[in-house]
Structure formats: C-alpha cells, structure tokens
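Retro notes, structure queue

What went well: the backlog is down to a handful. What didn't: a couple of records were mislabeled last round, so from now on we paste the full input next to the output in the thread. Example, using ABC transporter permease subunit from Alkaliphilus pronyensis:
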Amino acid sequence: MRKKIKPYIMLIPVMVFILGIFIVGIVSGLLQSFGYFPAIGLKTLTLQYYKDVLSSPSFIRALRFSFSTSFISSLVAVVLGVLFSYLLLYDRRRKGGPLVNIYKVPIIVPHTIAALLIFILFTQSGWVARLMYHLGFIEDMKYFKPLIFDRQGLGVIMAYVWKGLPFITLVTFDILRSVENKYAKTAANLGANHFQVFWYILLPLILPTVASGFIIIFAFSFGAFEIPYLLGPSTPKALPILSYIHYNSVNLADRPYAMVINMCIALCGFITVGLYVLTFQFIKKYNNQ
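Corresponding output:
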C-alpha cells in the first residue's frame, strides 16, 4: 500500500506549487473580469465588462480570426502529419532514410524562431519573392502577394502548421509502426493495395489519437501569443493580442476588459481539455474492445 501511494505523496509539494499558482491566477483574473479591482477603487461585482466585451465588434472579429487560424492550421497539420507519418513508414522499410530524422527538427525550434523563419521566407522582400522574381514569375517583388501581416492570417497559419505537423507525425508514426505489422501485412497478403490498407485499416486505428492531437494543437494555437503578435495583421487581432492591448493600457480601468478576454480564452481551453478527456476515454474503450 505504501509503495502505491509513495509516488503521489512525493508529487504533493510540486502539485501544490503548480496548482496554487494556477488557481490563484484564475481566481484573481475571474474577480477582475467581474469588476473587482480594489487597487484602483473597483469593489463592486458587475457583468457590465462581459456585456461590453461580448458585444464589441473588435472582440467578435478577434474571436473569428483566432478560431479560423487555429482550426485551419490544426486541420492542415493533422492531414499532412498523418500522410507524412505514412510516408515515413514506407521510408523505414527501405532501411531507414533521411526523412526519419528530418521531421523532428521543427519540434525543438521555439515559436519565435519559427515566426522569424516564416517572415524571412514569405515577406514581400523575402527569399520566396526574390526567387520568383529571379525566375521570371513576377515582374517586380511588389507583385508578390503578401503572406505576412495579411487579414487572412496566412503567415500565422503557416507558422502553426510548421510547428504542429511534426508533432502529429511523432504521435502517429509510432502507432502506425506498431499496428502495421499486425494488420497491414495481412491485408496486403489478401490483395489490398496501399490506399486500401491506409484508408480502411490504418486510418481507423489511429483516428482517436489523431483527434486528440488535433485538440492539443488547436488549444495551444488558440491561446498562443507569440506568432499572432509577430506575424498577425494590425486588424483583426487575435484574442491574446487584444487582451494584451487592454492589459497594457495606461488606463488601469481597462484591466477588467483584458481579464474578460482571458476568461474567454480559458473557457475555450477548459472545453478543449474536456474534449481531450472524452477522446482519451474513447481511445481506452476502443482499445479494450
């Protein structure tokens, strides 16, 4: 009995520290979002700040921008990651090729460096524009369509895809490698081609894991600050950027507006955590069948 509970007892100091910071931050932000900020004389709880923010056109635009960039980048990263992991599976059959290690490089690159790389490549004076100009595809670099700071958030999406794709590849490749020997070879021996093996056998087996991976990278990109701040447009802004502007305002009375936006981001985070738990339970139930 003692051996079973000993690891949990040893984790108590760390968990108290982590959960303490988390709970204090959430409670403090929640109180400020309701207008309780004694430091500047606000001591009355009110829903007015929520009404102002949720009815604000800038908040609606920011919510739409954050959701669209996060959803599109996560979906593209999942599709490309699954296809790339399947490609790695057959690359490994040929005694292992360079692809086995190349995909791991973006995982160790910080998001700020990823934003810098995207900026260097796809700005109007970047490497891609210069290459297209020298090859004669465009008459002048000013005709290169801006992919950075654009209202559609293409630069933000590309940066998130570049970071999310290797993560999806990492979590799906090991699963594909483990189930491929059991089921794929049997199906191939029965006459199934590569597409049928992937679509009818491998994909259903990795689908729960892929879904959980999608939820993880969507939740992260939805609340991330660095890449939208460095590559996003001046309008519409992402939710974390809009919150930062209110928080950094010289007028401290704008602080509750920032906390309302933070609470909305936190709520979306809790929802995605709930979806992740449900997905994990589905995976466990699926594996037990």
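Agreed that this is the format going forward. Reviewer comment attached to the example: The mean pLDDT is 84.
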